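Researcher: Next sequence.
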Amino acid sequence: MERVTKIEWYIIFTDQEVGPHWLHFLLKKGFYHCYLFRQIGDYVYYANPRLSNIDTKIYQSMSIDQLADDLRSQPNTKILKFKYPFDFNNQMFNTWNLVPTCVSVVKMFLGIRARAQTPYQLYKHLLKKGAVPFNY
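Model: Next structure:
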C-alpha cells in the first residue's frame, strides 16, 4: 500500500544564526544556512539543523505569518513555501545525503531527492519543483 501525502513546509534561507564558518567563502551571500517549519494543527513545528544536533521547537501561540514576520526581520533572509507529496516509502538516505549538513537534513524532512549540496542549490531546486516565495 502506497502512503503519499502532501505536506506544506516553509524553508528559510539565511546567513543569520550560523556565525563564522570556514565554508562561507564557498557559499552565496544570503544562503549560508537553511532550516524549516510547518503548521501541524494549532502548532508550528520548527526544525533547525545545527553542527551537533537538530534544534526543534513547537510554538503553540504563534501563527505561520507571525513566525515568518520574525524571520524576515533578519537581513538576507528568504522563505519558500513548498507543498510536495511526501512518500513515506521514499529512500531518504541516499548518496546526496551522506554528509550531515543543513541541506541534507532539510532534504530528508521534505522527503525529496536532489543533488543540491549548498543552500543556494537547494533554493534553486525547490523553485524548479514548484516552491514559491512566501510573501503573504
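Model: Residues 119-128 form the longest helix (10 residues). Strands lie at 4-14, 33-40, 43-49, 54-59, 78-87, 132-133.
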